[in-house]
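Why do we care about 3D structure at all? Because function follows from shape, and shape follows, mostly, from sequence. That is the central idea of this module. The next example makes it concrete: a single protein chain, its amino acid sequence, and then its structure expressed as tokens.
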Amino acid sequence: MGPRPRMTLERRYKALSWRGKLSEVAIARKLGVARRTIQCLLKKYEETGSAADKKGRGRKRLTNQREDRMLIRKSLYNRRVTSQQLAEEMQKMTGKQLSTTTVKTRLLEAGLKSCRATRKPLLTAQNRKRRLLWARAHKTWTVQQWRTVMFTYESRFSLVSDKPVHVRRRRGERFNKDCIAPTMKQGGGGLMV
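And the structure:
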């Protein structure tokens, strides 16, 4: 059985409001908590005058703000670097042994999530220009004109492995050039049918 959720501040003050009127057992029953919880709450209130948790509870962060920024900067510089590689790099630089989980947590806090890179055809500047001109030329076409166009489907048979590439990106960066895995015509080893 895992740890129970902590009592909210509101419920703690409700328990304190009943302390002269009800017994510890009755308060615990009303709030659905253990009697020991109420005992500790009353003792803490008598000692500190507050029902709030003490500052600095829990495990201390292994990294400071400067190291967090360093991790983020390294991840943005090379979006394909893994958490394991970042942890090893940080150990060389700071001497602190970070787990891959810690690295992932810090990057998630900064909004950097590990995602599969979006696969897009590798387009040259000339290709992009031609596509834009074609799109502008056909922007005003009517439905009737589009009905005269025949669309076909293509199937690709890959002759080489297409392993997914993972990148770290923030929300809205899906089509950022650093977050895309470019594909070649015929995949550099495939066949279109």
